[in-house]
Amino acid sequence: MLSRIASCDSHGQDSSYFLGWEAYENNPYDQLHNPSGIIQMGLAENQLSFDLLESWLASNQEAVELKRNGESLFRELALFQDYHGFPDAKKELVKLMARIRGNKVKFDPNKLVLTAGSTAANETLMFCLADPGDAFLLPTPYYPGFDRDLKWRPGVEIVPIHCSSSNGFRITISALENAYQQAQTLNLKVKGVLITNPSNPLGTAMTHQELNHLINFSKSKRIHIVSDEIYSGTVFDSPSSSFISIMEAVMDRNIDESDDLWSRIHIVYSLSKDFSMPGFRVGMIYSNNERVVSAATKMSSFGLVSSQTQYLLSRMLSDKKFTCNYMKENRKRLRKRKEMLVSGLKVAGIRCLKSNAGLFCWVDMRHLLVSNTFEAEKELWKKIIFEVGLNISPGSSCHCNEPGWFRICFANITEETLQVALQRIKVFAQSCNPQMLLLQRRSIIGKWISKLSSSSSYDQEPDR
Amino acid sequence: MAFALSNQEQLLSKIAAGNGHGEDSPYFDGWKAFESDPYHPTKNPNGVIQMGLAENLLCHELVEDWLMNNPKASICSAEGLNEFKGIANFQDYHGLPEFRNAVAKFMGKVRGNRVTFDPDRIVMSGGATGAHETVAFCLADPGDAFLVPTPYYPGFDRDLRWRTGVQLVPVVCDSSNDFKVTMEALEAAYEKAQESNIRIKGVLITNPSNPLGTFLDRETLKDIVSFINEKNIHLVCDEIYAATVFTKESSFVSIAEIIDQDIACNRNLIHIVYSLSKDMGFPGFRVGIIYSYNDQVVSCARKMSSFGLVSSQTQHLIATMLSDDQFVEKFIAESAKRIAERHKAFTWGLSQVGIGCLKSNAGLFLWMDLHHLLKEQTYEAEMALWQVIINEVKLNVSPGSSFHCPNPGWFRVCFANMDDRTMEIALSRITSFMLKNVEAKVPNKKKLCWQRSLRLSMSSRRMDDFMASPCMSPQSPLVQART
């Protein structure tokens, strides 16, 4: 009756991981009305800086009302369905992208394609770069939505690049090669690598070394690199030195403009995380490859950005002073919130992966597992939802190949709610079987000691 | 160089490297001519007038007035700012409840409140363009096909086929009976597909029709429903022009009304595609709707809507606007009135110089019959005439072949995307051209009737050749999500 696509479950929403969402929806925390409800910490949303956006709007009514020189702009906007996008909006978006990268890279608005969110951007790129049955390599852990965005309608297979906690989940040459071999074994044609930088769920920005491994890999296999840089504006520790865009990394290699590596580099971006506007569906693809830009532009017909929204953006982002201040203040608030979460978890004896970006922490709860298995992770997760009352994301939903890691979001709740959550975690951690805890801790401590003695961050591990 | 090029080809998918987007068609000449020489009343009064765009500009000032009096509708205004945070953060693919409620109510009003729509079946999409693609993804596998009566909107070739791999099989409707959809034509197309081993998954109708401007009568709709029920295939009804119906003589019947009254029909086969682009004139806001009577399709399409949700800023605006009952009723009535006036003025103007149009009672265009101006009844002659219309008459109209019309010589002319003055100028250009160049003088009614009932013969081979070729409507590289 229906298509195969409609009848299968590649949309990924039948996964048992939606249990947490359902539980939250049935019993949502509210400070006044439901103080014992479940706190939502599984949503990577940024709710920290709306006041900045609101105050700009309040003080800039003239800029956003639909008038130009006294003439109403309504008709022009209502009719504007050109898939090339509102020129002013694209101009401002590329300027924003450059600013986020410390102006070390310049972007051309003609190479930007607007899409209905980065969800549409990633799917569209897959339609452009791969045939059904082809594969993309993705470092684990990765954003669960990629399973839907890549596999469902484009029919692209995902082959994981296994990253491990032993080196802070950094991408290594051997992991890349293993993934490629794995694809060969499965008779899959690898079309590219999709990275998220900064990473979701890790919250880390990629190092020079990792990016160079990727570039070398792309050169040797002649495959694409799609870099989802949706969290690039959330890098909260000296971003100009710690975040390196794929574009910058390629530039730093002094690769000739005519080298076709350039035609295989594509960036995905969105305003959902950096600017807290996920509802407005503002995504984009940036590519140096003219044919990709051309095809993606035509495909954007299936999900254009509302002209009403494009206009708002063109006005808001043209205020350079506001944008710079916003980004700066937003990062400051994110860092503060992250530190609150990290220190609160520390009190509970729980460590996080050292991170410098994102709206979440990658939390190590391996010591709370009864066994080093995904079953145990699931049991722990259910406990955290129903007994502790927190909806957090288990690492297995992000395809992490080590049990015991969880993603906990910190930017979508108030400070008060975060304190409540931390208190609950503390009580829970203390109540866990002390004997078991001791045993686990001893083995973990041993690992920590060896890590600490080799390096203080995960950035400088040897590759082999 | 050739090696480098073919390497480039391999870097991309087959979908991206191919021409399934439909924009490589030779019919771009009209668009290029318009874009390089666009009419402007003062800056370029001799430029090409755009009559290939099915847009509705007739009631925008009503909306502008409403917006001025309802600043709360914008979350950026001082009055609406308190809602900014909630709306900016809202990405739930179910859509704002008030949006779904308002759209469901609007759809009911457009159909004279003869039916009601369930807000829980309203699914968002990236315009009707996104809606059609999503529905195709839900109902058909690559290689499966939909039956589509000719002539049809050229964008379907892209929307239903490009990324989905679904095929379109034409149901030949021709000028011999005013392009009416007959059961014989449906059955013939279905049989032909079976013989070619093509699996038909459904029928796609646009009602009211683009490019014809006519709507299906109750009996034909019922027959189509029986047909799809019997074959157990889907029926997708694109009702995007529902509110452009301006006739008082007979009433537009929506498939929703047929379903309401026909209990024998398997409702799981019925799906409606809608949008605000034509009825309200808001193509830029990308408000596409899928309304399915099949729960599984609603569920699947809703998940797919993640790839093309309506901006929550726009959802909020539309919800506020369409909840204003008084405004909506006034708008629907006034819009129909203005379309009727424009239609009357244009058809009269054309008839004065011997140009007949298919009798229509909806849409933002006329289906103009120029076959009597063709040197011979071929598509080449149609193209030649079209070049003349663009370059000498200086109008961009859409040739019937781009709509897969089985008879050469028909052209779609849009009349709702310009002001009165421009329309007068367009008519005067046509008049001048006809009086100068065409031997037939002022016609009598008899002659027009004779022309319309002329049974055009074409060799069946030429027809098959044509049907096989990827004819597309001129899609401007600069504009157009939907013409």
Characterization of this structure:
The complex is a heterodimer of chains A (464) and B (483). Chain A is an alpha/beta fold and 464 residues long. Chain A has 18 helices and 15 strands. In chain A, the strands form 4 sheets. Chain A has a 7-stranded mixed beta sheet, with helices on both faces. In chain A, helix 7 packs parallel to helix 8, helix 7 crosses helix 13 and helix 15 packs parallel to helix 17. The C terminus of chain A is likely disordered. Chain B has 483 residues and is α/β, with parallel strands linked by helices. In chain B, strand 9 and strand 10 form a beta hairpin. Helices cover 42% and strands 12% of the residues of chain B. Chain B starts with a helix and ends in a 15-residue tail after the last helix. Chain B has a 7-stranded mixed beta sheet with strand order 2-8-7-6-5-3-4, sandwiched between helices. A 4-stranded antiparallel beta sheet of chain B has the order 9-10-13-12. In chain B, strands 1-11 form a two-stranded parallel ribbon. The interface between A and B is large, with 72 and 73 residues.
The largest sheet of chain A has its strands arranged as 4-10-9-8-7-5-6
CATH superfamily of the largest domain in chain A: Type I PLP-dependent aspartate aminotransferase-like (Major domain)
Low-confidence parts of chain A lasting 5 or more residues at pLDDT below 50? 455-464
The averaged pLDDT of chain B comes out at 88
* Assembly annotation: heterodimer
- Count of DSSP E strands of chain B? 13
Q: Bin the strand percentage of chain A.
A: 5-15%
By DSSP (H or I, 4+ residues per run), the number of helices of chain A equals 18
Relative strand content of chain B: 5-15%
**Radius of gyration of chain B using CA atoms only:** 22 Å
Instruction: Categorize the overall geometry of chain B.
Output: globular
CATH architecture of the largest domain in chain A: 3-Layer(aba) Sandwich
Class by SSE composition of chain B: alpha/beta
- Give the largest chain-chain interface (CB within 8 Å): A-B, 72 and 73 residues
Pathway (chain A): Alkene biosynthesis; ethylene biosynthesis via S-adenosyl-L-methionine; ethylene from S-adenosyl-L-methionine: step 1/2
Keywords (chain A): Ethylene biosynthesis, Fruit ripening, Lyase, Pyridoxal phosphate, S-adenosyl-L-methionine
EC number (chain A): 4.4.1.14
Domain Aminotransferase class I/classII large (chain A): 39-425
